[in-house]
Write a structure and sequence with these properties.
This protein has helices at 94-110, 123-127, 139-149, 161-164, 168-179, 201-211, 230-238, 242-248, 265-269, 353-374; strands at 8-11, 43-45, 51-53, 67-70, 75-77, 82-86, 114-120, 153-158, 182-187, 214-217, 222-223, 226-227, 254-260, 275-277, 287-294, 300-308, 319-324, 335-345. Helix 7 (230-238) packs antiparallel against helix 8. By secondary structure, the protein is α/β, with parallel strands linked by helices. It folds into two domains: 8-219, HUPs (Rossmann fold, 3-Layer(aba) Sandwich), CATH 3.40.50.620; 252-374, Riboflavin kinase-like (Elongation Factor Tu (Ef-tu), domain 3, Beta Barrel). The relative contact order is 0.11. Strands 2-4-1-8-7-6-9-10 form an eight-stranded mixed β-sheet, sandwiched between helices. Strands 14-13-18-15-16-17 form a six-stranded antiparallel β-sheet. Mean pLDDT is 84; it is low at 14-68 and 70-75. It is built from ten helices and 18 strands.
Length: 378
């Protein structure tokens, strides 16, 4: 048997009800230093080799972002088994949400945790690195969205040559049955697994039946006459059609980047921008967008975001530069989350600085209106 590194696991933890005199008996997540419960929004990182035990009857969920993160090498004990869905879940779209909803319902009926098992990086990055699709979400964002849909844990499997070389039968035996102790599996009809993608839902059904496991298949979610898929959303984002993409996703399309020093032209024009670097996901097409930006500490600002080269100043380098409406202060080195709402216009060259400033003022006003109309986001 090839050595497969264990997955990192992100486990959602239920906070005790305010009126409860004692912690609910179903909650049994063991944390160091006696920390049996986490308040909403808190996070605990356990070093490699730590263990979280989820005994029979455990029921864990995520209150407003609480999570326990266990790096690769940690162990999670699921003696009662689990209900599992396996996939890349790139973007975490409405089709994924339908699978998770079925998974959570099945897990509750069986009295076991609902686990989403995903990969980092995408297996295509190992098998076809030159042709791997650009990701729609970071691994952390995928886990956040999946936990928000109701799964109890997200297992993030490091992808390497040993993993992608597993046959479908080996993956079933050593990962689904051995590692996750799955009692039930939920997948879409196009699910593929194992080397060469030779495993399909028919084979999975045969293997599950032989092991006494349940398998449920969820039909695709259709929108505007076609199935919702990561590749379809990727095409929309690449074309700048972020509002249409958001209709297929469970949350608006997000970029995350670190603020670095730029040319500071926006400041001289009266519209300072945050120049973002280290963006790991697909960039929308060049243009100006309305967005919501979350700064460290959780404050949210409407923003007009320029994506692409600044052609008025003869640049060819592609940049992502949000102007945060109403923000004053220093963001250098900070990490920003940019949630795209709508595309406002193409990038273009302006004849004068005054023309550019007038357009920027119009962009900001339109962006503020778009953010207000969009309402609160998940």
């Amino acid at each position: 048997m090839r050595h497969i590194p264990p997955p990192s696991v992100i486990v959602a933890v239920r906070s005790p009800a305010p009126a409860a005199a004692t912690p609910p008996t179903q909650d049994a997540v063991s944390l160091p230093a006696g920390s049996a419960f986490l308040e909403a929004g808190s996070a605990v990182s356990l070093p490699a080799g730590s263990a979280v035990s989820l005994p029979a009857g455990s029921a864990v969920s995520l209150p407003a972002g609480s999570a326990v993160s266990l790096p690769a090498g940690s162990a999670v004990s699921l003696p009662a088994g689990s209900a599992v869905t396996v996939g890349n879940f790139d973007g975490v779209h409405r089709g994924h949400a339908a699978i998770v909803a079925r998974l959570v319902g099945l897990a509750r009926r069986l009295g076991v945790p609902a686990v989403a098992f995903t990969f980092d990086p995408h297996p295509a990055a190992i098998l076809r690195p030159d042709a791997a699709p650009p990701p729609l979400t970071t691994t952390a964002r995928r886990a956040q969205l999946l936990l928000g849909l109701g799964v109890d844990a997200v297992a993030v499997q490091p992808t390497d040559q040993a993993l992608v070389a597993l046959t479908a039968e080996e993956f079933f035996t050593h990962v689904l049955r051995g590692g996750l102790r799955a009692r039930a599996v939920v997948e879409g009809p196009d699910f593929r697994f194992g080397a060469g993608r030779r495993g399909d839902v028919d084979l999975l059904g045969t293997l599950c039946a032989g092991a006494g496991m349940e398998l449920e298949t969820v039909p695709p979610v259709l929108c505007d006459g076609g199935p919702v898929s990561s590749s379809r959303i990727r095409g929309l984002v690449a074309a700048g059609r972020v509002r249409e993409a958001a209709a297929l996703l469970t949350a608006p399309y997000r970029l995350t980047g670190r603020v670095v020093e730029g040319a500071r032209r926006g400041r001289t024009l009266g519209f300072p921008t945050a120049n973002l670097a280290d963006i790991a996901t697909l960039l929308p097409a060049a243009g100006v967008y309305a967005a919501r930006v979350v700064v460290p500490g959780g404050c949210v600002h409407a923003a007009a975001v320029h994506v692409g080269p600044v052609v008025s100043f003869g640049e060819t380098r592609i940049t992502v530069e949000p102007h945060l409406v109403g923000f004053t202060g220093d963001l250098y080195g900070a990490t920003l989350d940019v949630d795209f709402i709508d595309r406002l216009r193409d990038t273009r060259r302006f004849a004068s600085t005054d023309d550019l400033k007038a357009q920027l003022a119009d962009d900001v006003a339109t962006a503020v209106a778009s953010v207000a109309a969009a309402g609160p986001f998940p």
